[in-house]
Amino acid sequence: MKNLAMPSSSEHIKEKSRLEEAITQLANNTNRFMTETNTNLQNQAASIQNLKVQVGQLAKCSRVDNKEIYQVQLKLILRSNARP
After folding, report:
1. pTM of the full predicted structure?
2. Is 59 exposed, middle or buried (0-12, 13-18, 19+ CB in 10 A)?
3. Per-residue model confidence (pLDDT) at position 9
4. Does residue 75 contact residue 83 with C-beta atoms inside 8 Å?
5. Could you give the CA distance from residue 33 to residue 40 in angstroms, rounded to a whole number?
6. Separation of alpha carbons 18 and 24, rounded Å
């Protein structure tokens, strides 16, 4: 059977110190992760906003192009129908 003797005072202090260090590292890593995540989210939000603007600009250009194409097609149809 194993001897279940209580750890000595110095062993207890060393173990406590190791646990405190582990908790400190965990807290630091968690804070760093949260900061990086927030930065990434802000960057993504800015990228999405930029894409919205660009898509809006493309849609506007597309409407203009389609309108011009429609007008040209209509003129061609009218010309072809007007010829004897």
Report:
1. 0.56
2. exposed
3. 82
4. no
5. 10
6. 10
Mean pLDDT by 10 residues, the chain (84 residues): 67 89 97 98 95 89 76 83 70
- 6 in the Ramachandran plot: left (φ > 0), alpha (ψ -120 to 50) or beta? beta
- What is the C-alpha separation between 35 and 42, in angstroms, rounded? 11
Provide the 3-class DSSP secondary structure of residue 35.
helix
How far lies 74's CA from each of 30, 38, 60, in Å? Answer: 64, 53, 21
Amino acid in the structure at residue 57: Q
Question: Residue 23 is which amino acid?
Answer: I
